[in-house]
Fold:
Amino acid sequence: MPYELTQEQRDKYRATSIRSQQRKQALQNRKSVKHESPLRGDRLDPADLMPLLPQNGLSCMSLFSGGGGLDLGFERAGYDHRTSFELLDICGETFRLNRPDWDVRAGSAAGDVTKVKFSSFRSVDVVHGGPPCQPFSVAGKQAGAQDPRNMWGEFVRCIQQVRPRAFIAENVVGLLDKKFDSFVQHVIVDPLQGQYTIFKFKLAAHDFGVPQARRRVFFVGFRAARDAARWVEPAPTHGDDGTLFGPLLPRNTARASLGLPSIGYDDVAPTLRSGFTGPRNTTGILNSKASLKVWNDLRIWPNGVQRTHELAVAYPPENGHFRLSVEDCALLQGFPADWKFSGAVYQVIGQIGNSVCPPVAYAVARQVAKALGAVE
Ligand SMILES: C[S@@+](CC[C@H](N)C(=O)[O-])C[C@H]1O[C@@H](n2cnc3c(N)ncnc32)[C@H](O)[C@@H]1O
Structure:
């Protein structure tokens, strides 16, 4: 769907963009000026939030694989990843960069799930995926089933053809709005009724150590009643208060996780913009006007993300706040530093913002493996 701008807004954006390009050029020409990195070096390593588990004997495949958030979480939880399907070539490149030995089907010919017959994947234990969320996002028009990007029917068709022991689907919480009750019932629940016991629940990324406020809804389905009976939702690992089971780890906040010096204030980052929406080719992660205040309080600049930290440091924003690099955005989303993204900065930001935070995917994957009796 085209992003709608008035001529006035277009002119304003163009003027800002020209001004910022000129400033960047001027700063880059001042080669003699040495810009000092504010980073202290002790950054969060998101890999610590999801210790690599031994193989659990379960195989899995993914649909709508994007930049690999769900796939990575499942892999680290001990699953044998079989195949990923993704429409965008650039996401396929990301997978090839990180997991050259995986079977990745990307692009409009091989990766478009609408063209795939899934019956040959019958031996796969678990299917997971995050169907495009734009049709249900409050940031969009919430056209639901009328939106051509709605792919839930395809996800359900895949489950009917593969008949996995369990499935997991992730989406924006907007899908739980009353106005989508009938959609959820008719498109997701009814076609799988009698074959799967389905649970739906919300998770917040910051409850699992990710330094970002990000809530998402999950649907988990089990074919066997015995497995469904063993299902327990993932419990938070991080938070400000303890639980019945004991104290939680302290919440990870944005500045501390990035390794920035203390300014006497810190908090989790606002939700990063879900990629590929908003102004085309943007390199900003700002999700809403309201979140700008939090970014300001954090003294982090959510626009003009740079490819590397060195470039970000060499191009400080006018207000002196910390400019983010793509590695910083990946960290704020819970990706370990060794997971690389392919593409131009706006495409990388898109893949990051669209992804399931890997530590959240890991928490769900672990609970599913327990319910399936694969691990204690
Ligand atoms: C919300 S993102 C998924 C993010 C992913 N689960 C992760 O954790 O990184 C949805 C993805 O579905 C892809 N997609 C949309 N239509 C598709 C189709 N017909 N076939 C395959 N993938 C599609 C989009 O390109 C996008 O990358």
Remarks:
- The radius of gyration is 21 Å.
